[in-house]
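Let's practice the habit of predicting before peeking. Look at the sequence and jot down your guess about where helices and strands might fall. Then scroll down.
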Amino acid sequence: MKLEGIYTPAITPLTSEGEIDIQAFEEVLEHLIEAGVHGIIVAGSTGEYYAHTPEERVMLAEKAKGIIGSRIPLIVGTGAMRTADAIEYAKAAKAIGADAILVTSPPYALPNEQENAAHALAIDKAAGLPIILYNYPARMGVSMGREYFQQVTEGSSNIIGIKESSGQTSQLHLLQREFPSIQLSCGWDDQALEFFAWGARSWVCAGSNFLPREHIALYQACVVEKDFDKGRRIMSAMMPLMDFLEESGKFVQSIKYGCELIGLHPGGVRAPLQAMEDDKKKMLQGIITTLKKEVASITGATA
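Done guessing? Here is the structure:
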């Protein structure tokens, strides 16, 4: 499996009662496919997997596969505190015909590199699917490092890629120089240009839920056209959004509000998260309007 293009960690729409809205979920997925994204992830951080029951997670994966079919790849997240639970999510992903699974470090436990590698390999043994690692130390408490990568690549041929979300450019250097068999995917939005410069050919980006064409434009410029001058201009136009998402303290809420602005029906968020403030909504709306105009002027598209 080649990681090429824009992979969207899809939001999970909710009804006014806080239940999962399947009709709105289908609208989100169809919108993404029509916009041209290259793959969809369910049970990712942006999808609020941590706020879902095990039954809801499996149901969402099943529904996603039924909606997407074979049109684009479906990647299912297996994140869990217990290895046993992650294994069950991986088995469910295999049963529904997912194309790959996303494997994180288990949060809170703080495993060392050997323990963390054993966690990933146990999941691999249970599912036998292509694996995209997800390194997000800010959420998980530990980072995947050299010893980890050595053990998982020696232990399995299913480790095909990584969503690298540490924010550390040294990770790009380590992975590309010492572990070239692991395909790089940008997981830290304001470093997308650097990832592409270091050979990444994909980007897992939450903002593509509501700005898919603008995110695709950066991929197209850097990876397909290899025009990094154009890429820098697009990235510069996108930086205010990247900064807002990181600094607002309302990441998922911002993504969902962006979806609302384009006519989708995302609903709210589940506790412990709370609604986005009106002043932040107004600020985000202005950022999005400017971004779309600037990217359109660079690419020659219609805003």
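How did you do? The chain has one domain: 5-225.
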